[in-house]
Write a structure and sequence with these properties.
- By secondary structure, the chain is α+β, with helices and mostly antiparallel strands.
- The chain contains 3 helices and 8 strands.
- A 4-stranded mixed beta sheet has the order 5-1-7-6, sandwiched between helices.
Length: 151
């Protein structure tokens, strides 16, 4: 690492299961079309929960209601200095705005079973996609009051 100050990219993700299928997005990336949870960067002044709600709506047109934290994940891209700190939330989606335009780069939303997701592993945006689902399937849930914003 250089002498520059190291700062991980803080991101949020939504792990949403409905009827045995997980809500995902197919998106354009520098590496081609990839599959990811609805996810994105934390904006300045934004809480982690608000970011997860916003990103899910922007990328899927679904209104997300978080009810637990699945996990906090650190991932460094192999061979690069860039690293990510991901807060993955689970919850429900209730209202869908079918006519809403999705974020630039998002091709479509997908509902995939765990087997379908695993079969698509070469197209995952990062190893965090499967890890978050595996942790969700294993029952990992932490209360949202674990997170605190200082006044």
């Amino acid at each position: 690492m250089t002498d520059a100050v190291w700062k991980p990219h803080v991101t949020v993700a939504a792990v949403v299961e409905r009827d045995g299928h997980f809500l995902l997005v197919e998106e354009h990336t520098d590496e081609g079309v990839r599959i990811n949870q609805p996810a994105g960067h934390l904006d300045p002044g934004e809480s982690l929960l608000a970011a997860a709600v916003r990103e899910t709506l922007e990328e899927t047109a679904w209104h997300f209601e978080p009810d637990a934290l699945v996990g906090i994940y650190r991932w460094q891209i192999p061979g690069q200095e860039r690293s990510y700190l991901r807060f993955a939330f689970t919850g429900t989606v209730r209202q869908h705005e079918a006519a809403r335009a999705l974020d630039a780069g998002i091709l479509r939303t997908l509902w995939l079973s765990p087997a379908q997701l695993r079969a698509a592993a070469p197209r995952h945006r990062s190893p965090l996609v499967q890890r978050c689902v595996d942790d969700w399937l294993s029952g990992r849930r932490f209360p949202l009051n674990l997170l605190r914003d200082a006044p």
